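Case study 2.
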Amino acid sequence: MINAIAIDDEPLALTVIASLCDKSECVNLQRTFTKPSEALKHLRKFPADLIFCDIQMPAMTGINLVRSLQQNTMVIFTTAFSEYAAISYELNAIDYLLKPINQKRFTQAVNKALEYFNYVNKKDQSAGKHIFVRADFSLVKIPVADIQYVEGLADYLKIYIKDRKTIVARMPMKDMMEKLPAADFIRVHRSFILPFHKIEAVRGTTIFIGDKAFPIGRTYTEEFFRRYSS
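Prediction:
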């Protein structure tokens, strides 16, 4: 069960969130607030797992509220304005709900939060079998076993997945390596991360997986052959 609070300067909007939470089996809405300052004061004493937060509020915007959080709390923005989606992505929001919010869309957002909560807290039996990546303004769950390879391009990367659309994410290769199981993946080039068990052949400094060929970068040669020959 996820413990949550909701923040919105409109009492009616809070009533809607409360009603949606009542119909959900995985969210316990503990408190609602019309004043962001009171919500922040409450969170310092009683941290929540999840915050439903409006964006345009008179005293403090939801964006500034999230930026001022002292703890790592999941956030689902609830707003009538679509133009803040990009900013919410930068703030690592779990989801972005446009008002009026229906139960189906609310449930989708809450399920994302629950999956991420279980992943972070290692309560999900599938923890380690999936990773979560932020792409297309949402949190995407990727089965580790389905990753074919990862390609780094400038300030973003592409994750190639079996029988699924390639995911483009704005994140460094270093951060991607930290998400992946170290025993199962290896970085062989500044532009490529490969699943070790999918490597079919190595010729010189070229790795083959299916019909794909990947160069081994000079910086990564020693570590690769140490692992490959062991």
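The helical segments are 11-22, 36-45, 62-67, 85-90, 103-120, 173-179, 221-228.
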